[in-house]
Amino acid sequence: MSTSRADELRTRLAAVHDRIARAATDAGRAPDEVALVVVTKYFPASDVRLLAELGVVDVGENRHQEAEAKAAECADLPLRWHFIGGLQSNKAAAVARYAQVVESVDRTALVGRLARGAEDAGREVDVLLQVSLDPPGREHRFGADPATLPALADEVARTSGLRLRGLMAVAPLDEDPALAFSRLAGIRADFLSRHPDATLLSAGMSGDLEAAITVGATHVRVGTAVLGSRPAVQ
Ligand SMILES: *Cc1c(COP(=O)(O)O)cnc(C)c1O
């Protein structure tokens, strides 16, 4: 049973690495400029363990309780945990205690709490700012309104314990991802002019990783293409 799951993960992982390599080459980039974060949400720690055996280093989770439990179960593995989900203020410190990278920072209220968690953990936490790609005029449901990014970035950059590393975004469901990611490229150019060292860009998922790599993604977050469909009931 677990052998066949390992085979399945190996095959799907190889296919995703091929997609990344092809997209990077098509964009005139080196394939190793794009890191794969495997999103393991809803899947058991046993899958995380198999992925680690297959060479996966970066794993992503979007729900605090599930992530915290899985990170604890896999504490013996050399993994880097990325928190990619909506962050409640009262959970932010706890997230920073196990996540080496927090990708979904979208408001200044989180900053001090993340810094406290980093201090508890005795290490620095890498921060990506999640920027909303909802078209102008739409309510920004996920991520920071691009207009609020400069202040948020400055706040993270001056907070000890946190390292401002770059941006994260999710393409809206009802729009061509290439269009949304072209807005992201513009937002990123502005952002880099103020924070030239914060070069990471986490964008692209199972369905749109090629479009994200075209605009410069350094990290793609891929769940279903590696692990299969997520269970409907959580
Ligand atoms: C679930 C999730 C992903 C992975 O999505 P897939 O379509 O399964 O590849 C990527 N990013 C975020 C923020 C997610 O919540």
From TrEMBL:
Annotated organism of origin: Nocardioides simplex
Taxonomic lineage of the native organism: Bacteria, Bacillati, Actinomycetota, Actinomycetes, Propionibacteriales
MF terms (GO), sorted A to Z: pyridoxal phosphate binding
Listed name of the protein: Pyridoxal phosphate homeostasis protein
SUPFAM superfamilies cross-referenced by the UniProt entry: PLP-binding barrel (SSF51419)
PROSITE patterns noted in UniProt: UPF0001
Domain Alanine racemase N-terminal: 14-231
InterPro entries to which the protein is assigned, alphabetical: Ala_racemase_N (IPR001608), PLP-binding_barrel (IPR029066), PyrdxlP_homeostasis (IPR011078)
Modified residues (N6-(pyridoxal phosphate)lysine): K41
Entry's family note: Belongs to the pyridoxal phosphate-binding protein YggS/PROSC family.
Keyword DNA repair on entry: no
Cofactor(s) needed by this chain: pyridoxal 5'-phosphate
Alphabetical keyword list: Pyridoxal phosphate
Pfam families on file: Ala_racemase_N
Function, as annotated: Pyridoxal 5'-phosphate (PLP)-binding protein, which is involved in PLP homeostasis.
